[in-house]
Design brief:
Number of strands: 3
Distance between the termini: 22 Å
Largest sheet: 3 strands, parallel
Shape: globular
Number of helices: 6
Radius of gyration: 15 Å
Structural class: mainly alpha
Order of helices and strands: EHHEHHHHE
Strand order of the largest sheet: 1-2-3
Strand content: 5-15%
Length: about 130
């Protein structure tokens, strides 16, 4: 039986709130489902609340509201936070991504989250409503 996890996009006001919303959607109140892009990808592979057989759907309601909350401003804020702990070899690329985000260009956090979901789950797992 396919399990459906509902993300209420109107509740997503930034990346930190997204982690709370997805955690609660999958694992109930106070639930954890990653708090970073890499751990989110790991959680999607199963064993952290999702069925190991991958038979689930993520239904992202009001996704346009989330897209606005996770747009270039939030992406730039996220990248600024990474710069303090990034490996020196990654700083040039990180600075370039930050400059693009500050200019309103390039992929947003919303885009990255969608890409992770699509890369780590079966086709048809994501429904944007």
């Amino acid at each position: 039986m396919t399990v459906t996890y509902v993300i209420d996009g109107s509740e997503v006001t930034g990346l930190e709130r997204f982690w709370d919303v997805i955690g609660e959607a999958v694992n109930g109140p106070g639930g954890y489902f990653g708090r970073g892009l890499d751990s989110f990808a790991d959680c999607l592979r199963g064993g952290m609340g999702t069925p190991d057989d991958g038979d689930f759907v993520i239904e992202w309601r009001d996704h346009a509201l989330s897209a606005r909350a996770l747009a270039h401003d939030e992406t730039a804020r996220f990248l600024r936070g990474l710069s303090g702990r990034a490996h020196p070899g990654n700083l040039p690329r990180l600075r370039q991504e930050l400059a693009r985000a500050e200019a309103g260009l390039g992929p947003t956090l919303f885009d990255r989250l969608l890409e992770i979901i699509r890369d780590e789950t079966a086709p048809g797992t994501l429904r944007l409503l």
